[in-house]
Structure prediction request, 456 residues.
Amino acid sequence: MVYELGWNWNELELLAQGSLAGHLLECGCQLTGGYYMHPGDKHRNLAFSDLLDLSLPFAEIWFDGKACVMKAEGSGGVLNFSTCAQQLLYEVGDPSAYVTPDVVIDFRDVSFKPISSSKVLCLGAKAAAKPLPEKLLQLVPKDCGWKGWGEISYGGHQCVKRAKAAEFLVRSWMEEILPGVSFRIVSYIIGFDSLKVTSIDNIASAMETAEDIRLRMDGLFQEKEHAVQFTKEFTALYTNGPAGGGGISTGHKKDIVLEKQLVEREHIFWHTRGNHSKLVGSELQQKIPEADKKTSVLPVPLLPQLLQENVNVSCIYGSSPEFELSPAPHGLKVPLYNVAHSRTGDKGNSLNFSLIPHFPPDIERLKLVITPQWVKGVLSVLLNPSSFLDSNATAERDKYLDEHVKVEIYEVRGIHSLNVVVRNILDGGVNCSRRIDRHGKTISDLILCQQVVLPP
Prediction:
């Protein structure tokens, strides 16, 4: 943008708007309906077929910093306020200071104005109070040990209890050979508690009704031999474990974690260059395939040049489905699904999740309910190392929660939303996490499952 539009590197407000567009485009089709459709939610209940022909998003940027994100006319998916709001807060910490190498951006007053079903105007990004990062981020690979894992399925009567018995045996066998390593193992029962955050009001009833589950145990060890030993002990469930276990799979691998370091800006050297196409007028039009001419869909690489040369392009705009927006009920216990939508992102050992109310004024009531204490209470079970906890394990979990897990809640005024950041909750981060959902992507919907009572 700096090269094409003649910006200067010290025009920080322009860089902020340009970086906003880049941030929205970063995850491709997540902006145009991918990772958004949700059956049962009237605001997000797209037809399955709508996901077959998603358009990659693209952006128009003007010399004055105005930005529009767009999708191809006639394509599937959806591009609207909600998809833009989810992507704005995706993998963001403090929205008043989103750090990029070029400029630190303040997202708090960003707003989105749909112009059509395929075009949204993006406004309000500005440079933060301290607009230039003093240092730049460097990721350094570091050996973090060896991972060993195993899975086995159980079905039918009391399958959950048999899975718990199998877990108990593997942990005990490992302790006999390698005393003290059990704490390095995390266990899940897929189909019962594999995501940990799921709220189960009647655990006994859930255990009785489960008919098809799979036990997964995942350990991170200092020595390769320990990881190999774990796979051997797990395989022993075929002959020495409870009845009816099948479909065993095991494996081990070396794990590398990416540690963050900060580097002084003056130690980084970079340059850029560009080649400018000389195609003009009729030559440019000949580059557009016949099918695209008929449907008014522009090949993305040619769009900036068409705009620059004032080639007349007509678009057919559609309309987005409208919903009658009304406040969420008060004084009643309702799932957060009824109030807001959300997306989760990860940064190292921290996660963030957005809460974007369907009815924007509901943000004031949400702020009274979504507190750091509430968030810690919901997410504390992520720290459970096992599907059956003794008092010592529970005490250790609560101690870690108090000492290490930090919750930050930010209001994003322009889109009437909350961004919640939770530090030290992802079991060390994606590269070394022992969890099934290493990124924490499922947590957004598990948060939305929680029952809340909104005040008047």
Observations:
- The first strand starts at residue 58 and ends at 61.
